[in-house]
What we know:
Strand order of the largest sheet: 1-2-3-4
Mean pLDDT: 92
Largest sheet: 4 strands, antiparallel
Radius of gyration: 24 Å
Distance between the termini: 20 Å
Order of helices and strands: HHHHHHHEEEEHHEEEE
Helix content: 40-55%
Number of domains: 2
Number of strands: 8
Low-confidence stretches: none
Amino acid sequence: MDLLTHVLLAYLLTYGLVGFHPQYLAAGALAGGLPDADALFYPISRRFPILQHHGITHSLLGVTIVASVGAVVAPHLASGAPLDYFAVLEAGGISHILADGFTNFSVPPLLPFSRAPLHLDADRAINFATLAMSIASFYLLLGIERNHVAFTVYTATIDVLVALYAGYLAVRLAGRAVAGRARRRLGGFDHVVPTGNPFVWLLISERTDGGQRTTAFARYVLGRGITAGPYRVEGPLEVPPHAGAPQSRDEALAWSYPLACRASSVLDRTYHFGEAYPDAGGGWTATWYSLEFTMFGRAAGVRVQFPPDGAPARVHAGFVRPRDRLA
């Protein structure tokens, strides 16, 4: 999850554990964000992989060490008991581990003793909807309400936010379970992938065989079943021999796929799809885009344009808007 949501979830969890005690709320919120400080270990982490992002700082041992140090240091900075500080710092750190494991990224909570991952795949690692909600929540709590409204109004707002985020996480988990059952019942799909909408999921299969990669996906909506697809596309891992301009959708997709993969590492790291269509002035345009890295109707991807005269293809990586379909 994004850093702001981590901090907010830890803040709300700390409030639920100890109530409104500003020093503990601050400590818990800080602990909720600290595991992502592993970004500061670069480039040392290249030599010591355990320090890489989602490494030791995202483990129970890592957050316990941080909580232990904080329990000693924090009482010298603000009033409070060491054991209470340890409890809220530990809870904040664990909330970060659980929140990351909740998404399509995995974390190793038992490092260095085991690399077994926690990976629920119930939400996107960066969900722009929850990011916007977290920004709005911080602005409401710390900008609009703090020291401007009655204390009971402030605490009531926190209670509402606790219920809102708890409900959101519950819907995500329920959706993951229901979509998983649908995948097994329907057959033909290997993975369930979350979208930015907690009620919409993608059922996906991906195969690589004989130098060809084939992807198929269908859109599954809770309560409605399959609402679109299954769609299917395939492309070679290497550019096939060719000359001139593509004469069909299949040729445009086959010629463009290796070019797109080289132009964007996002395509290799996420499930993706492609479409191709003829241009008004002749030639073809093929668009390959991530099914997971999307926002506001656009997706991280690559657009490959083949001029009608057979000139070299023009390749542009960025956020593209697929013409036909987007989860």
